[in-house]
Design brief:
five-stranded mixed β-barrel, 6 helices, globular
Length: about 180
Amino acid sequence: MAEYSLTTPLSEEDVRKLKAGDKVSLNGFVYTARDAAHKRLVELIEAGKELPIPVEGEIIYYVGPAPTPPGKAIGSAGPTTSYRMDPYSPILIEKGLRGMIGKGERSEPVVEAMKKHGAVYLAATGGAAALIAKRITNSEIIAYEDLGAEAIRKLTIEDFPVIVAQDSHGGNIYQEGQKKYAR
């Protein structure tokens, strides 16, 4: 397993070199969105309208952060379960989304879109939300403020630790890990 430091936005070349199990330290910006925001984004795409965020080369972090304490950029910001975004992710990947951060395995249509278009699924450590939040230096609501914690935010991140859970070649730590320890 390799270790990488990457700065967003990501290129297809950045993504294609990553393999399941690699450790990645992310820097730059990521956008947050959960299922309600994803639904709205896909509706805009289907209507041929402009999106409120750039998608090409970007990463979406599946998180609904806790309220922001005084003096902090954001509240606890741990990953949410990713499968709720699976109906929407292939369309966003086709539009150039390069990465997603969450927890839990992705569906076959998402994996196929990742392989075809060069995207990666990254896992952030669940249960470490307060520690992850320390890697977020700024948080700004960009769209859908009416969704509260699920509004789309632009997060500035520094040395944000993730692991490649599912790569653009079909590698999958969830499946590989089970095989490794199966009797």
